[in-house]
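Journal club prep, shared notes

We agreed each person brings one worked example of a sequence with its structure written out as tokens. Mine is NAD kinase. I'm keeping it raw so we can talk through how to read the token line rather than staring at a rendered picture. Sequence first:
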Amino acid sequence: YSQEKMTVLVEPEVHDIFARIPGFGFVQTFYSQDTSDLHERVDFVACLGGDGVILHASNIFRGAVPPVISFNLGSLGFLTSHPFEDYKKDLRQVIHGNNTLDGVYITLRMRLRCEIFRSGKAMPGKVFDVLNEIVVDRGSNPYLSKIECYEHDRLITKVQGDGVIVATPTGSTAYSTAAGGSMVHPNVPCMLFTPICPHSLSFRPVILPDSAKLELKIP
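Then the structure, token by token:
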């Protein structure tokens, strides 16, 4: 950090650990209660672990997510494309590039915003930005879910089954694929609408444009 003249921010829980280690007084943190402007203070994020760490990092930011460089230390590494052994070289390339005109390639990944309503009213604090998918399912209920699906206030279908997955292209290789959905390149601006064990065998997954506004209603 001193060579690159950088400010290092970590999560509050991690900062408590660093505070007890001599020589790490330079590490700073942020208040977890207010992260609305965190994306304006952070230039890039370094993740150590598996795909779950990247999903966790995405959830920290309420606004736009800064560029993320991920080093694989976990068992699942679809999103962690950098080996940890190369972290010094890769971080320097992110900061400086190979020369003054060069940099690094990044992949833009969309997120979905989900807002929960009950009895027609928005529930306070129930707005989520998700990188992988949104799932509406029957939970522990032994009966079929009945879900009405609207796109811009127009009824498009009624789903009877275990539930529905609405996935991003990033999430298309996760739960959605296991439920029979397609795999989509992360640069394709779309969302995937995938039923979970539908009662009707003719109900197939659908790919919608990223401009679609979906409403899932449980009567």
